[in-house]
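Practice problem: predict the structure.
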Amino acid sequence: MKIKLFKKFRKDEDGGILVFSLIMFLVMVLGSGMAVDFVRHETERETLQDALDRGVLAATAFEQLLDPEDVVFSYVEAAGLDPVALGVTVNSDISLNSRRVSATGDYEINTFFLKLAGITELPVAGTSEAFIAITDIELSLIVDISGSMAGTKVANLRDAANEFVDLMITEDTVDYTTMSLVPFTGQVAPGDHLIASFSDYDRWHNYSNCVRFNAADYNDTAIDVTAHWNQTQHWGPSWLRNKGTDWCPNEDSQIVPVTNDAEKLHDAIDLLDDQGMTATYIGMKWGVSLLDPDWNGVINDLIAYGDIDSAFSDRPAEYDDDETRKYIVLMTDGANTDQYRLKPNKYNFNNLPNWNVAANALYWNAHNTPWSFSHLEREVNGPQGDTRLQAICDAAKDEGITIFTIGYDVSVNSNPYNQMRACATSPAFFFNVETADLADAFATIASVIQKLRLTI
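Answer:
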């Protein structure tokens, strides 16, 4: 009888589903509980990580005067966490030009449901690091002072360029910013001291120091001061001579190389006046060379003359220097004009003007009667000048120099408009402005440069 009852009980399946359901319910409860523990863990981790991220970013700001640990701790506390209890540690490396701050936190939270599976604690960890550096700035400001800049335009240029200097060289930036001023007309005047670095300069006269470049010279960013160079003729028709102006600009419009002295730049800018023709490519060639590391020897020569502060003996920096950014700001109001030179039979020591032979022993001026453009021959025409300009712009961009260009009162799709737009690093770095807006363009460029100097 007992055996029959046992067999009957063994075959009885009533209530089997209930048992299975109870087992599945317990599994689901445990699974849901584990999910709660994991959500708690992720929430705590995200809270810690967010507090650390915010804290280190705030601590790396250059305007931050508080101790980095105090800053990070304040952000952790603001998140409702105890930095000491959570084992938050802060490390920092602060220098004049850079700030690096890192922070970590590492603690454990108790579990509610995972302990049923033998897991009583879950580790919570967060780590964050921020680095910010102010890069050194090397900049060439290349400005058109040709005859078309006469009157209001050159006056506005002086005002806008002076404001640009004050925006770029401030109490906060003076230690790492240098600027070179390169005024150009139909030529560029480098000055006596700069040209003295040219070891093989074929000098004809002592009235100016302009250099003649060939087309191939615009494919390279540097000017090789050890190569052979010809001096530009010094000449001008009588109506230009009466203004003290010749094809090669006078000394009031010469290059001001590599300085952080705002007053020195202001003084030079205040002397800028309109004169001569337009050779934007020559201005660009000199401006780019002042940023080329091959000119470190030239810079040190100028330091020896007292023209440049010895603090900048390591400039121009190498192109791949991560701590330096190089910029060109190029402005023109017109197209490249034809460039001329005197015919050989008009520039020799046996054909001197008879109005002052002694004072002009090495100088030819078209004071002869009658003056005629037949005395000249074309050396470079406008389209050739455009080709040279784009060659030096491309060479500069290939080396990582950032180029901003300004078309000053030029018509849309005109030659100078297209040349400036093509020369710029990108169309966004080209500004086409009217006279009244020139200062705004310079101010915008200064703002962009100051933002680009920060690397995070």
